[in-house]
Write a structure and sequence with these properties.
- With 373 residues, the chain is α/β, with parallel strands linked by helices.
- It has a domain at 42-258 and 345-365: HUPs (Rossmann fold, 3-Layer(aba) Sandwich).
- 51% of the residues lie in helices and 7% in strands.
- The protein has 16 helices and 5 strands.
- It has helices at 27-39, 44-60, 76-87, 104-117, 128-141, 148-164, 176-179, 193-203, 216-225, 241-252, 265-279, 283-293, 299-306, 316-327, 331-338, 352-365, and strands spanning 68-71, 92-98, 120-125, 169-172, 229-232.
- A 5-stranded parallel β-sheet has the order 3-2-1-4-5, with helices on both faces.
- The longest helix is centred in the first third of the chain and has 17 residues, at 44-60.
- The radius of gyration is 21 Å and the shape is globular.
Amino acid sequence: MNYQICNRCVMDTSDPDIIFDKIGNCNHCNDFFNTLSKVAYQGEVSDRNLLRIVKKIKQDGRNNKYDCLIGVSGGTDSSYVAYIVKKLGLRPLAVHMDNGWDSEESIENIKNICSKLKIDYQSYVLNWKEFKDIQLSILKSSIPEVEIPTDVAIAAVLHRKASANNIRYIISGGNIATEGILPSSWFYNPKDSKLLRSIQKEFGTRKMKSFPDFDYKKEIYYKFVKGIKTVYILNYMNYSKESAINELKSNMDWRTYGGKHHESKYTSFVQSYIQPLKFNLDYRRATFSTQICSGQITRDRALEELKKKPYNEDKVAKDKEYICKKLEITLQEFENIMKLPLKTFRDYPNDQKKLDFIYDVYKRYFKKKDLTK
């Protein structure tokens, strides 16, 4: 298609499935505003709903050491969730999934948050050799969803820890204000275990033995058998990332680490270098578009930022060398991977039809709107 950019946000035809209306606004920001009206902060109504949710969590966990679980990465959203749940009087267990790629800033942030807030902390360290092999398999598969192994492992670890500690609520940092726009063509369902295993079988050198897998079967078990719910608490607040960062810096000795999800050195490199250069997929567009629609930045400012390269030219060579050394591949092997023909999940065995059916049934008949009733 001919190049086109949205008149309201900054999403463009780098998303092959984008649709523009008659006045040039895209489906992403139109959908965002439709969703925003239903789940975003609504003043006193949201305040009351938040208090009801907190009361429910406290009641259900009154006989347990912890009444909720929070995943901590050292990033803004998860750090602020930890800060907020303590202010709300909850008793969280903090869990970190360590995949070997944490930045120094993120490690220090987790340490400060848990120490200052007196939150019990557990770390789940992945088998590095196995995980590294899975990451390489995904790179060699040439699909844009490079971070599927990490996304799967996070979900698996949080649910395992919640179940093991008899915790019924996982408090997530996911929120509409900073993550409301993400094209489906950029992000396929990470819970498709068939896809991950088929890619590992074709490109990997190790079997997935200790890797914490998480598919629709496990999700059904944890949700309906164990009764574990995920609460997106930031949606019940007037959440601003800039304000959250300032508050964390002032009260938690929190350190900034760069762009969105750059608390991980690998994620930073994937989103700033691999995905933009190989797949013409710049996550900044989705982030900026969300921030534009939620009133956090102007479209003109976003367009100016997008004129800059997504990676730091002065340090990209060093970053590439670090990534290759840790993955135990040569720079030439990495360049060969970057030149491989582009693929999608559809090029490998997958469970898309089954997952679409299951989640459609869930949304129609089982999903509750919130925990405020």
